[in-house]
Amino acid sequence: MKLLHTADIHLGSNTYGRIDPETGLNTRLLDFKRAFDFMVERALEEDIDLFLFCGDAYRTADPTPTQQRTFAECLQPIAERGIPIAMIVGNHDHPVSFGKASALDIFSFIQGEVHVFRKPDMQTIRTKRGPVQLLALPWPIRSMLLSREEHRKKSPAEIRAFIEAKYLEYLDLMMQDLDPAVPAVLAAHLTVQGAELAGSERTSLIEHEPKFTAAQLARPGLDYVALGHIHRPQDRNEGNTPPVVYCGSIERISFKEWEDRKGFFLVDIETTPEGKRTTYRFVETPARPFVHVQVDARGAADPTEVILTALARHEVADAIVRVRYHIEEDQAALVDVPRIREALKTAHVIASIERTVDPAERQRRTVVTRESSLEEAMTRYIAQHDELAPLKDRLLQAALELEAEYEARRRAET
Fold first, then answer.
1. Phi, psi for residue 30 in degrees, rounded to 5
2. How many CB atoms lie within 10 A of CB 132?
3. Which of 17, 125, 149, 193 could form an S-S bond across to 28 if both were Cys, CB 3.0 to 4.6 Å?
4. pLDDT by residue (tens digit) across 199-248?
5. Both 279 and 305 in a single domain?
6. Whose CA is closest to 231, among 255, 200, 203?
7. Shared domain check, 148 and 92
8. Can you say whether residue 239 is alpha, beta or left, with left for phi > 0 and alpha for psi between -120 and 50 degrees?
9. Of 220-229, 305-314, 405-414, which range is least confident?
């Protein structure tokens, strides 16, 4: 039994895109499509038995017709090959309004065998290499779980605890009906405690979501736990059985993910006389490179050259590039931004060229009024010049002597 595990495609994340002159589409939409097409081609080459999508097809729950068409076009080769498709509703797929269709419901009507899971359920899916038991835990939708009056006055902490308990109860019930001889996969769009977040994920939001431990999901009898929601690929069961795997996303969402690997997992569940054995491997997609260049040019006689030298150490062709440089205030006029842009002309998009400037240390100007005595004026002046401090007494004495000499001559003349 071979399946492909993917999630969090987020089609419609068009930040840093531009209009493609040949198609009229945003180039970031085409980036996501390229990664999606690569994944589907690999799925067909590997002759998979099940295409498993674990939630968050689009950026929002209201995708545009173009985004829906693109997603359906990418999936069509899978359906045409007769490979079953299982789709779990994620938090970005489900509308806030009760009763509205989710962004995945349309796929129930496309040609081919497509299973869409909006609520916890278990189904046995027939594939060319035999059946697979799929236990589905989609994103916990509060409006469905808390529809009874008794739950409406619960605090956020009580609601979170209720949802966690309810989902574990659903899982307990589904586990009771498992056939141990048939491969069993849990597919979920959830947060697992301790998951390593990608940079784009807001810790403040995830902190208040229902959470589950890897041990609560890694039940004996399951062969693989396929997760969506976290964008960084990882096995939360740390190599133990069954694997509890976040597949991550197939394209970068923002610069907060610029260093993250992007891809999907191919999973093999092998049945042997000794029992079932699961292996899995990560396949990297041709995601658009995001290049982040950080330069400290403070103190340089030619900060532009320092920045250009740093850029030369990076492969910027066809990349989305962000440059951040640090200078001092008196260097600002020395930075030749047009030359920097020229050095980035092969980039797909220049996301930004940002500077941080250390302000020059300014000496406070000495304030002298007509009412100030010579001694006061000299004292203020010396206080603003550290190098004169050791000479203060001598300077004041000389100034006062000059003042006295001047006053004696003025009186003599009058």
1. -70, -35
2. 24
3. 17
4. 665 554 566 789 999 999 999 999 999 999 999 999 999 889 999 999 99
5. no
6. 200
7. yes
8. left
9. 405-414
What does the pLDDT read at residue 174?
96
Provide mean pLDDT across the span 54-65.
90
CA 157, distance to chain mean position in Å, is: 26
Q: Burial of 193 by CB count in 10 Å (0-12 exposed, 13-18 middle, 19+ buried)? A: exposed
Both tokens of 76, joined, read 């069509």
Do 390 and 253 share a domain, yes or no?
Answer: no
Contacts made by residues 17-24, CB under 8 angstroms, sequence distance 24+: 17/349, 18/349
276 bridge partner residues: 271
Return the biggest CA–CA distance within the chain. 125
Clarify whether residues 33 and 74 are in a common domain: yes
**Cα–Cα distance between 26 and 351 in angstroms, integer?**
15
Per-residue tokens: 314: 């990076």
Residue with tokens 């060319």: 128
* C-alpha triplet 139, 124, 118: angle, nearest 5°: 20
Final residue before a domain boundary, out of 284, 314, 342: 284
Provide the angle, in degrees to the nearest 10, between the axes of the packed helices 65-80 and 27-45: 10
> Does 299 share its domain with 277?
no
The CATH number linked to 261 is 3.60.21.10
State the DSSP H helix or E strand holding residue 245, giving kind and residue range, or none if neither.
strand 244-246
pLDDT score at 373: 75
Q: Is residue 369 part of a domain?
A: no
- Could you give the dihedral angle defined by the CA atoms of residues 170, 221, 194 and 151, in that order, rounded to the nearest 10 degrees? 10
Q: Quick one: 85 and 200 in the same domain?
A: yes
- pLDDT for residue 372: 64
Span 325-359, pLDDT tens digits: 999 999 999 999 999 999 999 999 999 999 999 98
Co-location of 77 and 156 in the same domain: yes
Distance between CA atoms of 230 and 249, rounded to whole angstroms? 8
Shared domain for 294 and 277, answered yes or no, is no
pLDDT tens sequence across 69-107:
999 999 999 999 999 999 999 988 765 433 444 556 555
The strand ranges marked E within 40-82 are: 50-53
In a domain, 367, yes or no: no
**Looking at the domain assignment, is residue 363 inside a domain?**
no
How many domains does the chain contain in total? 3
